[in-house]
Amino acid sequence: MQHIALCVEYDGTTYAGWQRQNNALSIQECVEDALSLCYGVPLPIIGSGRTDAGVHARGQVAHLAIPETAPAIPIEKIPIALNTRLPAAIRIRAAEHVEADFHARYGATQREYVYRINTNHSVFTRSYVWTPDLAFDEDRLQDALACVIGTHDFTPLSKHNPDTPSYLCNVSMCALEHHENELRIRIRANRFVYGMCRAIVGAAYTVARGKSTIDQLRTTLASGERGSQTPLAPPQGLFLNRITYPTPVFDNLEMY
Questions:
Q1: Dihedral sign, Cα of residue 166, residue 249, residue 52, residue 208
Q2: Which of 33, 52, 137, 251 is catalytic?
Q3: Which end of the chain is more exposed for a tag (fewer CB within 10 A), N or C?
Q4: Backbone angles phi, psi at 31, to 5 degrees
């Protein structure tokens, strides 16, 4: 049995997210279909995390086990074999051998998302950045983002998911960066819950516009209760960027 990890890059614009669903096309389904075509048998994969509909990825990681009876494809040829069978919006960036106990989801120690904001409207970037229509203060945005660093119950800054037993997450980084013509919000945590990144960005943007205060954001986060007015930033600016494991995987690949 071969144990393989895949680094998957995708444009999530037209997909229902990473996780396989019964009534909509997902990234996972497309990759599993390509694997089935390559190896002649169904090969389920497990990803490092579930991205929402419209959210993209530079460094999604998935693992699978390939039985010895399946065709032998050299590890360096696996991305080529899969990419010829995948839609243009999904690409396998690399494949690596991993130990039998490697788990893309439960073995991850850190996950990093990047949210891209551009203040100049362009038809050529609209699917990959958020261009807010209203002015905001960058310093207030940075101060608001810093409020979520640390261990918190992110129930107030997330979407409800009945399958989530705990909303406790440790955010080690949440910072605003300047990159040429765009702003990037880099958020790093041990785990993320449903809609958490978009809720963090949406709440910080509300503060940056002067529609809320830093103290109000702190109070909301400390409450541990989900309100009805949690603002969500649009999905197109969000990218799952990098997954960290105790034993490095795909660390040589360029990310945002």
A1: positive
A2: 52
A3: N
A4: -70, -40
Buried b (16+ CB within 10 A) or exposed e, 98-110: beeebebbebbee
CA pair distance 200, 233, nearest whole angstrom: 8
Buried b (16+ CB within 10 A) or exposed e, 207-231: bbeeebeeeebeebbeeeebeeebe
Mean pLDDT of 150-165: 93
How much is the mean pLDDT over the chain?
A: 95
Longest dimension (CA), the chain: 62
Report the share of the chain in percent with pLDDT over 70: 100
Average pLDDT over residues 97-107: 97
Question: Same fold for the domain at 2-107 and the one at 110-241?
Answer: yes
Helix, strand, coil proportions of the chain in percent (round to 5)? 25, 25, 50
**Is 153 considered catalytic here?**
no
* pLDDT for position 189: 98
The domain ranges of the chain are: 2-107, 110-241
**Class of domain 110-241 as given by CATH:** alpha beta
Q: Do residues 178 and 107 touch, judged by C-beta distance below 8 A?
A: no
**DSSP string over 217-241:** HHHHHHH----TT-----GGGEEEE
Kindly list the distances between the CA atom of residue 48 and the CA atoms of 2, 104, 202, in Å, as whole numbers in the listed order: 19, 5, 24
Please state the rounded mean pLDDT for residues 36-62. 96
